[in-house]
Amino acid sequence: MLPARFCLHRPSTTAEALALLAEHGDEATPYAGGTEILVAMKARVVNYRHVVDLKRVDPLRGVIRRGDGTIVIGSLSTHHELANDPLIREFLPAYAEMSENIANIRVRVVGTLGGNLCFAEPHADPPTLLCALDASVVLAGISGERIVSMADFIQGDFATARRDGELLVRVEIPPLESGARAAYRSFGQLERPAAGVAAVHLAGGTWRFWAGALVSKPIMLAETAEEIDQRAGRIDAHGDLHGSAKYKRHLVGVLARRAMRACLT
Amino acid sequence: MNNIPLISLGFMLNGQGVSIDVEPRELLVDVLRDRLGLTGTKRSCDVEICGACTVLVDGLPVSSCSYLAADVEGRDVVTIEGLAQEGRLDPVQRAFVKHGAMQCGFCTPGMVLAVKALLTLHPHPSMETIRHFLRGNICRCTGYVKIIEAVKDLAEHQSGH
Amino acid sequence: MNFRIDAVLPASPTSIWPVFFDLGRVAALIPGCENVEELIPLASYSAVMNQKIGPFKMSVPTQIAVDRIEEPSHVTLRASGRDKFTGTTLAVLLSVDLEAAAQGGTRLEINSEIQIAGRLASLGFPVVKKKSEQLFAEFEKRLRAELELV
Which CATH architecture has domain C2-148? Predict the structure, then answer.
């Protein structure tokens, strides 16, 4: 189906975009690559009379590294751009690898990190790794910006901390401590992960494991390798087309060990 | 809703400038097929999974079934019709013919364009890279073997791209 | 989807019954159920069911009919409606039974059968199911709070 008729707005500044969202309230949606929202609009399971295209808002693009080592990702960065970005490849190779494996090449070329995070389809890769990396998102509203940790940002299926009228403008990833390694492994059949595990190995030898995609939001799985199986066995996973709850819990154990091995080699 | 302003769209299509007015909600696949008569691009799953609708925008593959026509403003679009030059098949097309890499042909335009993009990004891709890149283009007929052979042939023999 | 509430309450059936007799009041306890209107007392009502899961919204104009009513022990309601935009249909069967229990109290049993169909439901049934479970749990909480006041 075609989407229902809508007005397309193309602001060139964040302020213009915010003003449009404020003006049209819940009849407007921000729009980036459209890989999620346009498909939903075509299926007519969502209804927006106003679409605010963010692709001409330049400040939302690009990747920079601050003096303190924080990587700052513009929300309109596509997964393909991030997989190939020199800063991401050098300082967050686990993120580049994850980004290179999202969905298929066409989704990676068009889909943006901001769109992925804001749509909050639970079967996704970026949120799990970003939680393990202690990332935060910056939300801009008419009255200013606020920072929300990744763990607090995704609240449930299709639910985030973004209020109507706010835009996710940046994702900030603090530097891993020297000697730390991170890795992410996921598995799925239907172009989306059935389960994903991010592992971070800190220089002192301790671990952090986060699991995602199999529940409504990423969860801290374990802080030691020994705990993995027991914790995985207790996850209240969604049984759905991507797999039964039991299958997904099993996957978590397998993926956690693969992510661990990737950190250690 | 009445009085939605049309968008005055200008873009490069297969090397030629195109000017056309579109509704905001018009999809690229429909503009290419129904308004511009280029029916080589196919609509199949309509949910950006199968790749049959693949076209290149600024050299990169996109799902035209789930892409607003308005979003090609100022961009360079290449459809399957844009590959052959004056009747001479493109090297990717020649490789597909040589290796028998199609049966019904429905996935072929999208597949060929995906391969074109692959070889631009990775002129000499490994088997792993080929399989990974083409993961999103589904073929129901061939079992992919001949497609991969065609790409491997191109990967080994082409010089720069 | 089937849901059930089982409760033993200290008040007698005749004290509890008025809560359910006021069907408009019961409907208003359902999260998202708005604009409840009595069309024919004890027979038919209308309401609008508004629900939102992230960007997915639906607004279902709902007709509620009283199937059977027996004071002070039983009422069965049927509700149905359709959201125009998404084509989502809603069909609910709700039956309430009150039975005298030990020491002058009441055994309350509520059974509900809920069917949600249409594009939204078929694309995301696990999420719709989870949301329905949450809504019913919230309804139970509000109902119990209301019954405590008796």
Answer: 2-Layer Sandwich (3.30)
- Topology annotation, domain A60-173: 3.30.465
Alpha-helical (H) ranges within chain A are: 14-24, 37-42, 79-84, 86-91, 93-100, 105-110, 113-119, 126-132, 150-153, 228-233, 245-264
Residue A180 CA from chain centroid, whole number: 22
Task: Give the one of C54, C120, C123 whose C-beta lies nearest to A120's C-beta.
Answer: C54
Which fold is adopted by the domain A181-264? Enolase-like; domain 1 (3.30.390)
Q: C106: which strand partners?
A: C9, C100
Burial degree of C127 (CB within 10 A; 0-12, 13-18, 19+) = buried
pLDDT tens digits in sequence order for chain A, 265 residues long: 899 999 999 999 999 999 999 999 999 999 999 999 999 999 999 999 999 999 999 999 999 999 999 999 999 999 999 999 999 999 999 999 999 999 999 999 999 999 999 999 999 999 999 999 999 999 999 999 999 999 999 999 999 999 999 999 999 999 999 999 999 999 998 889 999 999 999 989 999 999 999 999 999 999 999 999 999 999 999 888 899 999 999 999 999 999 999 999 8
Round to whole Å and give the CA distance between C136 and C150. Answer: 21
Chain C hits for A26, CB-CB cut-off 8 Å, are: 57
- Residues of C (96-135) whose Cβ lies below 8 Å from A: 119-120, 123, 125-127, 130
**How many angstroms separate the Cα of B53 from the Cα of each of B44, B46, B89, B135?**
7, 8, 20, 15
Running DSSP on this structure, what letter comes out for residue B68?
B
Q: What is the residue type of A97?
A: E
The CA-to-CA distance between both ends of chain C, in Å, stands at 30
**pTM for this one?**
0.94
Taking Cα atoms as reference points, which of B10, B131, B110 lies closest to residue B54?
B110
ipTM of the assembly? Answer: 0.95
**Contact residues on chain B for A104, CB-CB shorter than 8 A:** 49, 51, 135-137
Token couple for A219: 């969860």
